[in-house]
């Protein structure tokens, strides 16, 4: 199902998404254009902080509540102008900090020493122990309220920062090329996976002082992105190739490859219940998979009519750069080279809202799912209010069930076929 409608049915798209604010980067008169890109934006799992790589080695860490207070309440409009003075930033024009009130989360500007490609927040849960035997000899003892930020750099290094203090804790060195993406296991174990242009993924145990646990090999070219399933048992990785890799993170072995894209796959993310996997590709499509059974459930097309497989691998202005799953499990956002952000409803199988964005590179939903952040090539970040809708009780029950049951387990239940199809997302 190619889900972006032809021109005669564009009226089905409900509305334009409302822009609620933007974070701008001061530009010097002779500022070089390369190196300014905001390759990654990220929200802390607890919703306390927002981080983005604003170019030129700099990462900004801003309390999310402070961001919301500083945003303009009006529309930014379809054609967002990054130089407009009426859109407030969380920094002064010269980049100085605003002095926080005592007890409030502090804002930090971090110089990482090289171009930053990947960002990831990690939180610590002491009950989830390290796999290392000699845990008592560790240099770091992370508390329950620990919040870390990992940054992947152009020189292959990974730097780990304390979010609350802005101090450097660890410097991980083993990759031989750009660290393109980082992701923490969501179970609080502080297991970190890095994806690199050196064609490998590396697993690091930060509770074991950042020691490297495993190297995952299998990609024949650059690795662009990786994502953990919500229960941390499966890792998805994608890169400069048509295949989607699924890894068993208990045994560190390859489970299977998903075949269906016709060009490089550049972004991936699991649904909040772990039942669906969304992958974005330069072939102009976002595919929704049932990764348990390696089947395609839905294709979200960004070019109409869809390109044939022989042409889908060519250059076009519909390359999908990033995909993100909303925490409500019902909406997906995608960024493409046609200067649009699309908000998809998996229930309606069509864009529910669109917004203009020039040179978009990445996107991420806030922890609450009500705001989408998108980074651009000029280092700025734009924020949109997500489409509002109330989830049905059926969907909420489906998500609760799928968090603990795989597709095969659901299919084994003695329940009517229509209900089984709904629970396995065959009927979305």
TrEMBL record:
Keywords carried by this UniProt record: Repeat, Ubl conjugation pathway, WD repeat
Listed Gene3D superfamilies: SOCS box, YVTN repeat-like/Quinoprotein amine dehydrogenase
Tagged with keyword Cytoplasm: no
Protein's pathway: Protein modification; protein ubiquitination
WD repeat feature ranges: 142-171, 172-214, 216-257, 258-290, 320-354, 364-385
PROSITE patterns linked to this entry: SOCS, WD_REPEATS_1, WD_REPEATS_2, WD_REPEATS_REGION
GO biological process, one term: protein polyubiquitination
One protein family per Pfam: SOCS_box
Domain SOCS box: 392-428
SUPFAM superfamilies xref list: SOCS box-like (SSF158235), WD40 repeat-like (SSF50978)
Name of protein: WD repeat and SOCS box-containing protein 1
Gene coding for it: WSB1
């Amino acid at each position: 199902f190619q889900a972006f409608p032809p021109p005669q049915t564009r009226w089905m798209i409900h509305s334009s998404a409302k822009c609620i604010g933007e974070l701008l980067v001061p530009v010097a008169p002779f500022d070089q254009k390369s190196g300014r890109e905001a390759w990654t934006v990220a929200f802390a799992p607890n919703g306390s902080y927002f981080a983005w790589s604003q170019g030129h080695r700099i990462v900004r860490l801003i309390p999310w509540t402070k961001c919301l207070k500083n945003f303009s309440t009006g529309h930014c409009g379809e054609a967002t102008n990054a130089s407009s003075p009426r859109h407030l930033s969380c920094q002064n024009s010269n980049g100085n900090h605003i002095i926080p009130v005592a007890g409030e989360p502090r804002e930090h500007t971090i110089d990482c020493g090289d171009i930053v490609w990947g960002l990831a927040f990690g939180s610590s849960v002491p009950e989830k122990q390290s796999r290392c035997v000699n845990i008592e000899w560790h240099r770091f003892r992370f508390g329950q309220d620990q919040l870390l930020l990992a940054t992947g750099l152009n020189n292959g290094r990974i730097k780990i920062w304390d979010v609350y203090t802005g101090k450097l804790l660890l410097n991980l060195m083993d990759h031989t090329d750009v660290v393109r993406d980082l992701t923490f296991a969501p179970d609080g174990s502080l297991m970190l996976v890095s994806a690199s242009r050196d064609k490998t993924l590396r697993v690091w145990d930060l509770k074991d002082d950042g020691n490297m646990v495993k190297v995952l090999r299998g990609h024949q070219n650059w690795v662009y992105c990786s994502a953990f399933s919500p229960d941390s048992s499966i890792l998805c990785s994608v890169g400069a190739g048509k295949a989607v890799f699924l890894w068993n993170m208990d045994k560190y072995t390859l489970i299977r490859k998903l075949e269906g894209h016709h060009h490089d796959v550049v972004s991936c993310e699991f649904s909040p219940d772990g039942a669906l996997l969304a992958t974005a590709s330069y072939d102009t499509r976002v595919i929704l998979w049932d990764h348990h059974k390696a089947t395609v459930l839905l294709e979200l097309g960004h070019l109409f009519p869809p390109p044939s497989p022989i042409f889908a691998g060519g250059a076009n202005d519909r390359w999908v750069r990033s995909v993100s799953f909303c925490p409500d499990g019902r909406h997906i956002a995608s960024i493409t080279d046609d200067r649009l952000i699309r908000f998809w409803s998996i229930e309606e199988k069509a864009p529910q809202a669109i917004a203009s964005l020039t040179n978009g590179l990445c996107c991420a939903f806030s922890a609450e799912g009500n705001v989408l952040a998108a980074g651009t090539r000029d280092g700025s970040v734009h924020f949109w209010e997500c489409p509002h809708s109330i989830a049905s009780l059926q969907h909420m029950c489906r998500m609760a069930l799928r968090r603990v049951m795989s597709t095969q387990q659901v299919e084994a239940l003695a329940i009517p076929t229509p209900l089984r199809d709904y629970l396995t997302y065959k009927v979305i």
